[in-house]
Specification:
disordered C terminus, 8-stranded antiparallel β-sheet, about 35% helix
Length: about 260
């Protein structure tokens, strides 16, 4: 009886509850006023919501393109809820939009309460066809490594032998994996997919294609060295310059 009572209450250390600061909770209001500004981009509102450090370190033109990208994908976003709090001044808002939902990570500066950083991930929207094609090409390599296709599809930053070993390790632990299911896309152009597998837990696939100055390297995947470079021919598909495959749930052991 005592054991049942303990099990009902829960045994073991519990994660401490982190409370959002008032500044974090309020930060979405000025951000939305910039996002949904009547008549288009409002430079004054944009500058007023940011910390001085953020304005020094991040180009305004780049963030204008980022916010406009969210607007093209989602349309208007009205309802916003703080759904995750990592620290008093850092958390994630979930925005209900005309198309899909936007999850916006937000950090505020201690003291001033100004926005020190934000980054969004878009769910429930159509992913670009090149990203869908890239995910299918990664899945095909897991099923059966093809050296010619690898040279065509992956940036020179990936070492064929080492990346082949990485794919073989995935196949050994997870067995056959089904076609990647589109999930989301972030502001850097990383596309995310859920990959159902035969055993060992499902995976999350991230792919990024050549053609962006802020492209992350392929270093998260084994077999990646250096920075992406080179061209892939006029008629060839965009090459993959970054990818990662990680367990969908934290409890699943990673591939070694």
């Amino acid at each position: 009886r005592a054991l049942r009572a303990l099990l009902k209450k829960g045994i073991g250390p519990r994660e401490p509850v982190v409370e959002a600061s008032p500044a974090l909770a309020a930060s979405i209001t000025p951000w939305l006023s910039v996002y949904d500004a009547a008549g288009g981009w409002d430079e004054a509102r944009y500058a007023a919501m940011l910390s001085d450090g953020h304005k020094r370190n991040v180009a305004a033109e780049a963030e204008k393109k980022e916010i406009e990208g969210y607007r093209r994908l989602h349309g208007r976003c009205a309802e916003a809820k703080l759904t995750k709090v990592d620290a008093p001044g850092r958390g994630t808002f979930t925005l209900a939009c005309e198309r899909g939902r936007l999850e916006l990570g937000m950090t505020v500066e201690p003291g001033t309460g100004k926005i020190a950083g934000f980054a969004g991930e878009s769910f429930g929207v159509a992913l670009p066809k090149p990203a869908l094609d890239a995910a299918a090409r990664v899945q095909a390599q897991i099923a059966r490594f093809d050296a010619k296709a690898f040279e065509r599809d992956f940036a020179p930053s990936f070492v064929p032998k080492e990346t082949q070993g990485f794919f073989a390790g995935l196949a050994r632990i997870h067995g056959a994996c089904k076609a990647p299911v589109p999930r989301s896309i972030d502001f850097r152009g990383n596309a995310f997919f859920d990959v159902p597998c035969e055993r060992g837990g499902d995976l999350t696939l991230r792919v990024h294609l050549e053609g962006r100055k802020d492209a992350p390297s392929g270093a998260e995947a084994k077999g990646a060295k250096g920075a992406p470079n080179g061209a892939n021919g006029k008629d060839a598909p965009q090459r993959i310059d970054g990818f990662s495959l990680v367990p969908k749930t934290p409890s699943t052991c990673p591939v070694e």
